[in-house]
Amino acid sequence: MKTPNERFALSSWRGEFLDPVEERAYRKHVEPMVAKHLRTSLKVWAGLLLSFGFLDFIALGWSVGFALIMGARAISAALLFLLGWRLRYNPHWATSGYAVTAMEIVGFLLFFLIHFVRPDIAIWNIGVTLILLICLYIFIPNRVVLSNLAAACGIVGTLLCLKLLGAEAPKLVGVFFFMCLPTVVGFAAALRLQIVQRQQFALHSEMVEINTSLQHEIERRESLEVELQKQATTDALTGLYNRRQYELLFHRERERSRRLGTRLSLCVLDLDHFKHINDTHGHDVGDQVLRHVAALFTRKLRQTDIVGRFGGEEFIVLLPETDLECAERLVDRLRQCLEQAPVEADGETVHVTATFGLTEVEAQDGNIEQAVKRADRALYEGKQSGRNRVVTASQEGSEDRV
Ligand SMILES: Nc1nc2c(ncn2[C@@H]2O[C@H](COP(=O)(O)OP(=O)(O)OP(=O)(O)O)[C@@H](O)[C@H]2O)c(=O)[nH]1
Where does the GGDEF domain lie (predicted)? Predict the structure, then answer.
């Protein structure tokens, strides 16, 4: 794993990232903006080329020389427009810099023609070359190496043209130094700009990475919180509410039924001879039976009914908006369902029954314990009188239902 300093190290003379992966990422990042600016620059370049033809016409009139220069201008402008159009579909050409470098070299070659057709404006031609040299570093975005190459073509070509037109060595040396000046200035400015832009990109990338890892950390902590919350409120084996959570839900439901004046019933149930199931079929099968019971009750009851596991093989069901009579019918249906739905576990069929103790939550019940105690008493009676039955706890005593 590279450190940020290694990843974002820059070449001091190319002004590009030494790491090719980072350089590619940077170019991709700036591609749309660079391609847009380059397209505008190419249009301006082509417009200037064509409009300067007017000066040639004033100097040369309708002549072979004018036709040659205008032809060269028209070819250059057409190539510039073509490149601008292709950039729309290949925006990476802008950041790679090769296409525009080739265009500049072709442009220089056509420009050299003017030296021969209009030797009368040699000083003007050299002046324009000086401006072109500095423009190169703007036209080839983010690639000073390629700008240097195009500038070298421009300088060597201009000197060659002047030599062919008979310029002496001192003049050539003077022009050479003169042309080096904008080249050095353009190179230094572009290199500095390139380095600063890439440094900004490096900072931006680091920020994005830090943000992303922070986001992941937040998500991890959120899911951990959800998991902890689940562990704190539910029973790991059955997924039902545990005793602690059940007490909170009981209080909420009791308050609601008091406020709305509705009835609330509570049922405690205990599987019959569960120890025997464990001893005969093993603890794993016993666990499967507990899960089966939890799933069956959750499926058969309403969404508003609340099922919990109070530990061991004891379950509790809270039935909002249900009076004792309705609750008794409903719980007896549950009892029958359980009796008629044996558990298929590890190739064995295990018949399960349960005994249910039922009570209605009363106004004077301060907490769940009082209601559970009544239901437990009824449950105990049910166990005593033969199991697999619903026993209702009432003020006077308990009523049996088998
Ligand atoms: N497999 C399994 N067994 C459990 C779990 N919790 C408690 N038990 C077992 O449940 C059995 C409860 O046995 P008892 O309290 O004697 O009750 P019982 O055998 O159902 O008898 P009655 O309630 O009188 O019908 C014990 O053997 C416990 O070990 C559990 O999470 N998984």
Answer: 262-395
Q: Could you tell me if 44 and 192 lie in one domain?
A: yes
Residue 219 lies in a domain: no
Structural domain total, the chain: 2
Please tell me what DSSP assigns to residue 267.
E
Closest CA relative to residue 359, chosen from 310, 323, 388, 385: 323
Cα–Cα separations (whole angstroms), residue 295 to 92, 231, 292, 367 = 59, 18, 5, 27
Q: How far apart are CA 203 and CA 199, in angstroms?
A: 6
Q: Within a domain: residue 220?
A: no
- According to the model, what pLDDT value does residue 1 have? 65
Beta-ladder partners of 357: 268, 391
Distance between Cα 344 and ligand 1 center (Å): 19
**In CATH, what number is assigned to the domain containing residue 301?**
3.30.70.270
Mean pLDDT computed over every residue of the chain: 92
The yes-or-no answer on residue 325 being catalytic is no
Residue 186's closest CA among 219, 155, 223, 222? 155
**Burial status of residue 315 (CB atoms within 10 A of its CB: 0-12, 13-18, 19 or more):** buried
Predicted TM-score (pTM) of this structure: 0.63
Helix 283-300 crosses helix 274-281 at what angle (to 10 degrees)? 130
Ligand 1, atom 11, residue with closest C-alpha: 275
Instruction: Tell me which of 275, 276, 287 to substitute to probe ligand 1's pocket, judged by most ligand atoms within 8 Å of the beta carbon.
Output: 275
Domain that holds residue 299: 243-401
ipTM of the complex: 0.92
Q: How many CB atoms are located within 10 Å of the residue 340 CB?
A: 8
